[in-house]
Amino acid sequence: MTPPEDVMFRRDLLRFGLVAPLVACSSSWAGSERTFQSPRTDRVDLPAEKWRVLLTAEEFHVLREAGTERAFTGDLHDHHGDGVYVCAGCGLPLFDSKTKFDSGTGWPSFFQPIAADAVGSLTDASLGVVRTESVCNRCGGHLGHVFDDGPKPTGLRYCMNSVSLDFVPRADVSKIGEPPTVRLGGWQGGAP
Ligand code: FE
To answer: Partner of 85 for a Cys bridge, out of 73, 126, 143, 165, CB 3.0 to 4.6 A?
Structure first.
């Protein structure tokens, strides 16, 4: 009896060692090349080699390769300052501290982005389960994932990497600019 076509196809994939690359490509990211297209007019679209210069090695791994910092190791999961969290890649405001809550996960968690056009979403099937990846809507930097087990009023939990965020105290928020100034390398970085 001839096996169904899809079984034969899988056998061929196994035979030629193609399964792993196909799984990897099902992610929103392929190596350091992202597929995200920013819908913003102030989009920041830089090649990986430019980000490599602008970011620390850890920032590059998380923001540009969709890496994940180890839980409870970041500097912002237990951070309680009043202010705004901006993208560590481009400086775009992403979350207000008023929406931060203690999720107990070891990663900074928020129930809502600071603006409707601040945080983008991508489908992430990289671990064999479908999750919603959160990215900076201006530079496409990987932030973390969003889940539907958060607190009121949204019921959402934006589970972010500390590495992807810089904190701006409330007293300095006016320096961010409106529209927000591009700061490559994050809040400590300069203008483009
Ligand atoms: Fe960004």
So the answer is: 165
